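Q&A log
Question type: sequence-to-structure
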Amino acid sequence: MVRADLPKLMTPEDLAKIFRVHPKTVTRWAKAGRIGSIKTPGGHRRFSPEDVKEALDALAGESG
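Response status: OK
Response body:
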């Protein structure tokens, strides 16, 4: 059973849609430390909503 109070972790594909980039770009950003991520036991990257918000805020700061 999935707890409703836990945040949904997002995939690189989910973030790619938000940022309008290729999923591999999101993975490169994570490897470079531009966005926080966790790795699943299977080696897949996942992103928390908090990490995504921080990245969006940083991106907005760069364009201003």
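Response note: The mean pLDDT is 86.
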